[in-house]
Each structure stands twice: as C-alpha cells, then as structure tokens.
Specification:
about 180 residues; mainly alpha; 2 domains
Length: about 180
C-alpha cells in the first residue's frame, strides 16, 4: 500500500510555535485526548475548515449507533483501496480494538478474496466490504450490493451511518493524499 511519492507535505503543517491556545486548537486537542496529529496541523492552515472537520469527524467517530468494528472495517478498506497509508496506520489499531483481527486486516490486501471469505468475515462484514468497494471505486452502488447490506443491517439509521462513514473517510483519504500529510 506504500505510496512512494509521499515524502513531504505539499503545504507546511502548522507547528507548535504558531498554534497558540485558541478555541479551535483546544477543541481539536479535546477530541484527540490532548494530542494533535499531523492531519490536524495541516487542517489548521484553515481554521474554519479545521472547525468544521473536527465537529463532523468527531460525530462520525464518536456519536453513531453503527457498530465500531463495521465502522473501522470500512475505514481500513477505504484506506487500502485509496492507498492512504496514514489513514490505515491510524485506523488499523482502532479496528483491532473494536474486535477485528489482524488476519482480517491482512485479508484486505486482496479485497476480491476477502469478499468471498465466509470463514474470516461474517455477512455484515462482507456487505460492508462490498459497499465500501463500490462507493470508493465506482461511486454508484448497485441495487444488489445495497440489498445485501439491508438484509444484514436492516436499521435505516445504521445504513445511513455506514454510507456516511465510507463517504467521510474517502474525503479524509483524498485530503491526506493530495496534500501528502506525513504520518506521525
């Protein structure tokens, strides 16, 4: 998944000397448990964008009813499909903490095989993989794919949340990769 073109950020991140202790930085630090990531430092080049991002992604990560394992599986799959190493490095541990396995993460390297692996992935996980693949690579989602998702995740709220997670983390991957944000 390594993107060899990603050596240095295209725009400098905001360093500690420039941060200050304004409410924008404080809100991000609060959501992150006191730490700023390089992603946050890049976002702080536009305080208005950083505020919106922090609120939106904070809700996506912490306020949804969607099972955390499905959320993190979708995020890791987006990261693999988009070759967003930074995103993968941040979310693979979250997937493991949510009950996923290293074998599942390893299987994402060959998504076609993972989609068929009934031993490693349950029906809801395979439907999540399929939806993530279609949304990330095709944008449009087939009726077959969405019907399969609805059969294993019948709650409309959770369907919306899963689609939203996939869409949001495609945005994150594209932001990280376009600006070549360096991993910590």
């Amino acid at each position: 998944m390594t993107n060899t073109d990603q050596n240095t950020p295209r725009i400098p991140v905001v360093d500690d000397a420039q941060l200050g202790f304004d409410e924008v930085v404080s809100a991000i630090r609060l959501r992150r448990g006191g730490t700023l990531l390089n992603l946050d430092r890049m976002l702080l080049n536009s305080p208005a964008y950083a505020i919106g991002w922090n609120g939106f992604l904070g809700a996506v990560r912490n306020k949804l009813s969607l099972d955390a394992r499905l959320r993190e599986l979708a995020i890791c799959t987006v990261a693999v499909l988009t070759r967003a190493d930074y995103e993968y490095a941040q979310h693979a541990p979250e997937f493991l903490s949510a009950g996923g396995s290293q074998r599942q993460l390893d299987a994402l390297r060959n998504l076609g095989t993972a989609l068929e692996n009934t031993d490693l992935f349950n029906n809801a996980e395979r439907a999540t993989l399929a939806l993530t693949q279609e949304m990330t690579l095709n944008v449009q989602v087939s009726k077959t794919c969405f019907t399969a998702l609805q059969q294993v995740l019948p709650d409309a709220q959770q369907q919306v949340e899963l689609v939203g997670v996939i869409a949001a983390y495609n945005m994150v991957a594209r932001f990280l990769e376009a600006l070549q944000v360096a991993p910590e």
